Records
---
Amino acid sequence: MSVAVRYYGGVGPVELEILVADQWRTLRDIRLRALKDSPAAYISEYEVEAARGEENWRDDFALPQWVVARRGERIIGLVRSLQVEGRPADERHLESVWVDPRDRRTGVLRTILRHLTEVEPEVRDWRVWVLDTNAVARNVYDRLGFSPTGESQPLTDGSGRSEIRLGARSERVGRSE
Ligand SMILES: CC(C)(COP(=O)(O)OP(=O)(O)OC[C@H]1O[C@@H](n2cnc3c(N)ncnc32)[C@H](O)[C@@H]1OP(=O)(O)O)[C@@H](O)C(=O)NCCC(=O)NCCS
């Protein structure tokens, strides 16, 4: 289901789409591309995700929502916007954030986030966990209006890494230029 063509100043139009459960293969394919391309950016591992079956991927649609960006036939970006259980109703967490390396720095993530704030006007606060080692993403979120909330949690994988939580008010998201 294509929802819009949005363009906030990159090198070409970006079409955004909210995936539905029957598109679980599309979700699987882009998640696996992301994990293969940027393993250091995520806690999930390619081998674990690649072994998941259809039912498992469909379960991921129980909680909305998965947004993909396309340029023509190419799927070039992914963001999950999620209301986390126990967190405020007007807060969303961003997860699984990835843009194809060929399309980076052309405003794809900015476009997706601005679109999310428009289609979810009731949301006041946006949150994202970023690995402390992911300097690029930390810079990107800073450019997109996010700042550290002061919360952090160590990973349990023995790597010594931590996740830090960033946050932004809706009116700031993607409008920091
Ligand atoms: C992080 C990521 C999603 C950014 O997506 P993107 O579409 O390239 O981001 P945008 O083009 O919307 O850029 C947003 C801002 O960040 C800046 N930016 C983007 N990449 C940057 C980089 N490598 N270094 C410094 N600034 C950068 C852009 O210049 C822009 O700021 P500006 O408008 O003030 O110039 C992408 O780099 C990526 O997929 N990285 C690997 C996976 C990852 O780390 N995901 C995040 C997990 S939390």
---
Amino acid sequence: MPHEFTCPKCNTTLVAPFLVACPACGFTLGHLLGQPSPEGEAKQLKHNELLTSGSISLYGGELNASFDYYGFLSLPDLVRYTVSYGHHATVPSPRGHHHNPVVVAYVPEIIGSGVSRYSTDYNPCSGLCIISPGSERWGHPFPVLEQWVQQQFPGVQGTCAVCGANTPFGHTLCHEHYANLTGDWRKLL
Ligand SMILES: [Zn+2]
Ligand SMILES: [Zn+2]
């Protein structure tokens, strides 16, 4: 069975992977791939900090993460993979007035590093989160620490994109299908 997902903009059911544009509404991923809106660009800067300044700041929060060069260069594939196969949830907006949709997918490679208030070490990240993926104005991708995923989505489950077996949230393949693909997530694109 081919894996199905919904267009982030119009919710039409589509067969994975997302290629160039949604056949129903024409939605593309350009705003998530380095041509962000002014609002998205401001948020993207803090997730590119490792590339621009060689360090990562907390910006007053508990956790923050930045792409490394590999993650930055892989962004087009990471975004298409996450839109096509990622797990959906919501997070409260910064002021808590409403919930923003997010989609999360781990890949078996390190795409960035993160820092937390409780540790000065840089920890590797292999998960991508896209917030408000259907919004050309607010949507942006960022790398996530496992600690962040567990804080935000405690107890939430996902499913394997190939067989539908339960998996931890964000883990798009079960052990068996992960092994069948020899860990190469790009084969699904
Ligand atoms: Zn669409
Ligand atoms: Zn499976």
